[in-house]
Amino acid sequence: MSERKSMSRKQYFFIILILGSLATVSPFSIDMYLPGFPRIASDLQTTIDKVQLSLTSYLIGICIGQVLYGPLLDRFGRKKPLYVGLALYVIASFGCAMTSSVDALIAMRFFQAMGGCVGLVASQALVSDLFPADKRAEVFSLITLVIAVSPMIAPTIGGYVTASIAWYWIFVILAGIVSLIILAIYFFLPTGRDADSSVSLRPEAVLGGYLTVISQPQFLIYTLAGGLATAAPFAYISGSSDVFMNIYKVSEQQYGWIFAFLAVAMIGSTQLNHFLLKKYSSEQIIRFTLIYQSVVGVVLILGVYNNWFGLYSLIGTMFVFLTGQGLTGPNASALSLAPFRKHTGSASALMGSWRMGAGAVISAIVSFLHNNTAMPMVGMMAFCAFGGLVILQAGNVVVRHRAASRDVEEEVSVLL
Fold it and tell me: Which chain regions cross the lipid bilayer (predicted)?
């Protein structure tokens, strides 16, 4: 009997909710302070593009932190690294709230990310621990649904907190939320896989484990393709506050509602993925999604270049594009982790690190290309989808070619 079947419906609900909350720590930390960018820039006597670097530093922290947590989760089990990382997040959140310069905010956001990113790695590893392989894509879809709620409510809350109190209270609220998650982990979350003393933390052993993971073709293809494709929302996140609030002149509260509306695209497609998996494979869903996102990306570029879009038409076209994010992410995660048992933590860390690393680079490029138009944002969104499609197609061609070559070699050896 599978572990899923051995759980009661109540246990299953709480586990999904906790895993989703863990995976949501970083997205919530990104989305909630976006409406405060203009106020932060004003209070810290700097520019919005400099404040955007605090988002980039957060993504860099996630990228580095996940690589470190992978072996720790395999060596010490799932819960101990979770407690340490989330405690660091709480401390750094208070540091963000008390900062008096943009450079200090950028530094504190880095440490906040180094702590919070443990939730991303641990949640994915725990899915592999607690659920059979044929249920993982479904579970990842449910977790993605919880994550997708974040951009619906986080910017809205952040907009009202910024407008009615002050932007730094956002970080105090984040520290409180993560404190509650720590309590939920302690009381309700199963331990998952036990600590494994055979997993060495020596640098050469850690690198060897990562090389083992990278040498798996299925992992490499779906991690690279899925990671670049899922970096598209970071272009949107990095550029949207400037585009909507400075170009289209919406208020902080209106921006929060726009962000929430666009999040519905990801929530709806996450639920659609649950039904599509009954008829189509994860591989088929990913390929089709990247093709249609590439087409919509071209429409976005042409529309911005030719000034076709008003506020509502731009929002509508972006809604169509972002629908693909709820289809690509869960299926890419399930396919990337499917080949592993022993190195699940390391595989989760590499996958998450690449996704956030790609997101950091994309967000930095959007900030660097800032030109008071929506082109940097929509251009990088289109690039992510098309780049993911190219990697997926090229990777599958190489794998098929190698498989055919091995078959020929085996036939020749038999004949000889």
Answer: 12-30, 50-69, 81-100, 106-127, 139-161, 167-189, 219-237, 257-276, 288-305, 375-399
pLDDT cut 70: percent of the chain above it? 92
Q: 375: burial class by Cβ within 10 Å (0-12, 13-18, 19+)?
A: middle
CB-CB contact of 174 with 308 (8 Å): no
pLDDT at 4 over 80: no
pLDDT at 314 exceeding the cut of 60: yes
Q: Check: CB of residue 128 under 8 Å from CB of residue 141.
A: no
Give the long-range contacts of residues 309-313, CB within 8 A, separation 24 or more: 309/374, 311/244, 311/248, 311/250
The residue that leads in pLDDT, 256 or 408, is 256
CA–CA gap between residue 66 and residue 200 (Å, rounded): 17
Residue 18 sits at the vertex; the CA angle it makes with 12 and 21, to the nearest 5 degrees, is 140
Give the Cβ contact number of residue 139 at 10 Å.
Answer: 24
CATH superfamily placement of domain 3-188+201-415:
MFS general substrate transporter like domains (1.20.1250.20)
Buried b (16+ CB within 10 A) or exposed e, 39-69: bbbeebebebebbbbbbbbbbbbbbbbbbbb
User: At residue 89, does pLDDT exceed 90?
Assistant: yes
Q: How far is CA 100 from the centre of its chain?
A: 29
| pLDDT tens, residue by residue, 356-385 | 778 878 888 888 888 888 999 999 999 999
Instruction: Return d(Cα 83, Cα 403) in angstroms, integer.
Output: 44
Give residue limits of the domains in the chain.
Answer: 3-188+201-415
Name which residue leads in pLDDT, 309 or 145.
309
Give me the helix-helix angle, 118-130 and 344-368, nearest 10°.
140
